Amino acid sequence: MKLLFTNIKELIQVREPSVLKLSGKEMNDLPTIKNAWLLVEDDKISNYGKMDDLSDSSADKTIDLTGKMVLPSWCDSHTHIVYAGNRENEFGERLSGLSYEEIANNGGGILNSAKTLQNTSEDDLYEQSAKRLEEVIKMGTGAVEIKSGYGLTKEAELKMLRVIKKLKHNYELPIKATFLGAHALPLEYKFKQQEYIDFVIEEILPAVAKEKLADYIDIFCEKGYFTVEDTRVLLKAAAKFNLRPKIHVNQFNAIGGVQAGVEYKALSVDHLEEMREEDIESLKDSETMPVALPGCSLFLSIPYTPARMIIDTDLPLALATDFNPGSAPSGNMNLVVSLACIKMKMTPEEAINAATINGAYAMELSEKVGSITKGKLANLIITKEIPSYTYIPYAFGSNPIEAVYINGKLIE
Ligand code: NIG
Ligand code: FE
C-alpha cells in the first residue's frame, strides 16, 4: 500500500540520516521542508521532498494536506498508564490544603493505587489501561514506555506487567515495559525497607525476567521512599538480567540518585525537579538521557526541571508525560510541549526535539521513530490548519491534531 501526502505546509523534524539524540545547541535546530510531499509504503516512511520535485505518482491513495503540517508522533518515554481507578479524592484533599506528602503518609498516594490495583482483575485492568492508551494515541503519541509499580506484591506486579505485554501485543505502536517494584514501601514492610528490597530482588525480579516481562528497571529514589543505597543494590541485581535503569530521581530532593543512575549506565534519569551543580556535572559524558516531566510539576505545584541549565550545559533533554493517577493524570504530550516552552523556557524547536527524537532515545527507539527519516515507522501527526509549528506550544490546551497514523494506518 502506497500512501502519498501532498501539499504539506511544513514537514517537520526531517533528518537524513537520523541521529540517536540531540544535545545542547543542537536541540535548537529543527529541520523542516516547506510545501512538501511524503510517501508512506506499508508501515514505513519511504520518501519525501518538495512539491516542486514530486514525480512519483504511483500511489494507491493521495491525501491533500493543504494548510496542514506533518510531524513524527510524540515519543512518551515515561508513563504509568496501567493503573486502576483514579485519585481525584486526593486531588480534592490537596485543594483543601493537604500536601502530596501528607496524603501519602495517611495511606494515600501510591499505596492507595496499589490497594485498588490488587483488587482489580487482570481483564479489568487491561480494559482501563487500553482506554488510556487509545486516548494518548489520538493525542499524537506514537511510542510509549509504561511502568509497573502500583502492584507492590509479586502477584500484582506480574499482573501489571502482563497487562503491558498484552498492550504490546494488541497495539501497533512500540511499547517498552519497565519494572518498578520499588515504587513505595508496602505497609506490611514498614520499618523493614531492606527486607522489601530483598524481596523485590529475590522473588519478583527473577520471575519478571523469566517471563521476559520487562525491558527496564526503575526505582523511586527519594526521601521517604528508597535510598541511594537501595537504588545501587537494585540496579546491580537488575544488571544481571540485562535490565537497564530508567529511574525516578530528584523529584523532591537531590540525594544522589542521578549519580547512582549514571554509575549503572541508566538509559534515563527522570523528574529532576531538584538539580544541584554536581547532578548536572555527573551527566556530562554519560549515555544517560535526562527526562523532564512538566505535567507533574504543574499538577503538584512543584518546581519545573531546570531545562535551561541542562541544555545550556550541552546536555540532552527529553520530555515525557509521567501519566499516572497521583502526580500527573494526563497523557497529553501537546500540553507537555506547551509547558516546556511556557514554564521551562525551552524554544519550540527544543521542545519538539525533546518530545520526539530524544524521547525515542530514552526508549532505545531512535532508529525506529522520532523523526521523518526514510525507513522509520510511519507514526505521524497530521495537524489541523495551523499558521506555524510554534502555534502548537502557543495554543496551550487546545488540540492541534487532525489525524494520527500508526504504522502507516489512520487511527479512527
Ligand atoms: O512519577 N514519583 C513517583 N511516582 C509517580 C507518582 C506516583 C503517584 O502519586 O501515584 C511519579 O510522579
Ligand atoms: Fe513517574
The profile of the biggest β sheet is: 8 strands, mixed
What is the domain tally?
2
Unreliable runs: none
* Annotated CATH architecture of the largest domain: Alpha-Beta Barrel
Backbone shape = globular
Distance between the termini: 18 Å
Helical content band:
25-40%
**How many helix segments?**
15
As an assembly, this protein is: single chain
Say which molecules are bound, naming each kind only once. Answer: N-(iminomethyl)-L-glutamic acid, fe (iii) ion
What is the top-level CATH class of the largest domain?
A: Alpha Beta
CATH superfamily of the largest domain: Metal-dependent hydrolases
Q: What is the strand content?
A: 15-25%
Number of strands: 16
Compute the average pLDDT: 98
Structural class: alpha/beta
Global Rg: 21 Å
- The name of the CATH topology of the largest domain is TIM Barrel
Describe this structure as you would to a colleague.
The protein has 412 residues and is α/β, with parallel strands linked by helices. The protein has two domains: 2-72 and 371-410, Urease, subunit C, domain 1; 75-361, Metal-dependent hydrolases (TIM Barrel). The chain is 35% helix and 22% strand. The chain has 15 helices and 16 strands. The protein has helices spanning 88-95, 100-105, 110-118, 122-138, 154-170, 193-210, 228-239, 257-263, 277-283, 294-300, 307-312, 333-344, 348-355, 357-361, 391-394; strands spanning 2-12, 32-41, 44-50, 61-64, 68-72, 74-76, 141-147, 175-182, 216-221, 244-249, 268-271, 289-292, 318-319, 380-385, 401-406, 409-410. The strands form two sheets. Strands 1, 2, 3, 4, 5, 14, 15 and 16 form an eight-stranded mixed β-sheet that branches. An eight-stranded parallel β-sheet has the order 6-7-8-9-10-11-12-13. Helix 5 links the parallel strand 7 and strand 8. Helix 4 packs across helix 5 (154-170) and helix 5 (154-170) packs parallel to helix 6 (193-210). The longest helix is centred in the middle third of the chain and has 18 residues, at 193-210. The radius of gyration is 21 Å and the shape is globular.
